[in-house]
Hints:
By secondary structure, this protein is mainly alpha-helical. The protein has two domains: 67 residues, Fe,Mn superoxide dismutase (SOD) domain (Helix Hairpins, Orthogonal Bundle), CATH 1.10.287.990; 104 residues, minor pseudopilin epsh fold, CATH 3.55.40. Helices cover 48% and strands 10% of the residues. The longest helix has 23 residues.
Amino acid sequence: MAFQLPELPYSYDALEPHIDARTMEIHHSKHHQGYTNNLNAALEKHPEFAERSIESLLQNLNAIPEDIRTAVRNNGGGFCNHQLFWKMMSPKGGGEPRQDLGNAIKTAFGSYEGFSDTFRKTAAGQFGSGWGWLVVTGDGRLDIVSTPNQDNPLSGGLAPILGVDVWEHAYYLKYQNRRADYLGEFMSLVNWDYVADLYSQARQ
């Protein structure tokens, strides 16, 4: 199999009380596993593409054969998004980013509070299922966008450095329809060290 479900960098209950263990278990072992399985099944039809990285596949969707393009977009996006998402959170997360990333956020959004407010509002405002993202643009600026379904900003030429899943399966057991509450709790989990590493890589 070309792609494997990554192990979580922490236990299912490590993010409580912000995200409950049952949600994490279902999200990782069922949803992420499902995207992984479906991506591999699609690529079996064109095994030459299975040798590429997930980032390369998503950055070049138009090069994917048409008969599997939608499956790769949806399931490849789901695989990639969640692979990032788990590492973007930490039991020791939260607080504010420092150094280069912290300064860039203040430049782009006026303050950390300004960033947090815009990020949460953008994610909360995504109609239906999707994601909220902090991205690096082609000219090195920070921006906040949302994407529907499992679309990844890579497909639009943007580098995602922070993402939050706003599909209901990410929060419904604990928060029901209170997406804004979930997003507030998510900010207490952000692994800013990892986000800063992605920011540094995106600017190279």
